[in-house]
Amino acid sequence: MTFKASVLTLYPEMFPGALGLSLAGRALEAGTWSLEAVQIRDFATDKHRTVDDTPAGGGAGMVMRADVLARAIDHASPPGDARPRLLMSPRGKPLTQARVRELAAGPGAVILCGRFEGVDQRLIEARGLEEVSIGDFILSGGEPAALVLLDAVVRLLPGVMGNAVSGEEESFENGLLEHPHYTRPQEFEGHAIPEVLTSGNHARIAKWRRSESERLTAERRPDLLAALPDLPRK
Ligand code: SAH
């Protein structure tokens, strides 16, 4: 089953962009997933092909029009399309690895990229858009956020990652940040690789990695530790 992404944007040239290279690019060529970039402006009806207008109630900036966006969505995702419809938005629920996994297990996604101040609220409600944020900061448009989301999803599609095991050991997959990594040279600027990692004792190594994971998570992301149902103990 091919994962089908439809991205609605004023800048279709931004796609596949970074996703045309490396793992995601090879998977795109192999047909593991497909990407359609839809130009929202094609669904404007006036001679200037207007997609935005001034905010009701006044204030700075412009708002994307509900009618134009509705036509674009209905074209890319007709009724009966089982794919979730996402709106990249700083007001959305923060994207998590758990949501990424769910999306990767589904048929695809229809992704609307906002520009200007955002989109008319009636469109969000009328088309049942799920607002998704990639973090507490403001981008100039939803396109980089859509690329981020798709990158995270595509690497989980069957056959995309060479080493399937590494996906399961990643940060967040067990609710913790990942342990630190080391490789040759054995000594770098006077610093040796931690002795345990060169001991060949796999039980000791696993225990060290686990405790480093817990230490880093407590230090940097106490919120993740608090969210764990019960910290699994060895
Ligand atoms: N006025 C809005 C920000 C608009 S930024 C506000 O204050 O909430 C323009 C567009 O960029 C948004 O419509 C959205 O599609 C995208 N965008 C900006 N920041 C984002 C983020 N953190 N996550 C996802 N999309 C974002």
Question: What do these coordinates show?
Answer:
The protein has helices at residues 22-30, 66-76, 97-105, 121-126, 143-154, 164-169, 202-220, 222-227, and strands at 3-9, 33-39, 52-53, 63-64, 85-94, 108-113, 130-133, 187-188, 191-192. It is α/β, with parallel strands linked by helices and 234 residues long. The model has no long low-confidence stretch (mean pLDDT 95). It has two domains: 3-154, SPOUT methyltransferase, trefoil knot domain (Alpha/beta knot, 3-Layer(aba) Sandwich); 169-227, tRNA(m1g37)methyltransferase, domain 2 (Trp Operon Repressor, Chain A, Orthogonal Bundle). It contains eight helices and nine strands. S-adenosyl-L-homocysteine binds at residues 88-91, 113-115, 117-118, 133-135, 137-139, 141-142, 145.
Keywords:
234 residues, alpha/beta, Trp Operon Repressor, Chain A, two-stranded antiparallel sheet, 8 helices, 33% helix, binds S-adenosyl-L-homocysteine
Topology:
Blueprint: E1 3-9, H1 22-30, E2 33-39, E3 52-53, E4 63-64, H2 66-76, E5 85-94, H3 97-105, E6 108-113, H4 121-126, E7 130-133, H5 143-154, H6 164-169, E8 187-188, E9 191-192, H7 202-220, H8 222-227
Parallel strand pairs: 1-2, 1-6, 5-6, 5-7
Antiparallel strand pairs: 3-4, 8-9
The structure holds S-adenosyl-L-homocysteine.
S-adenosyl-L-homocysteine binds next to β5.
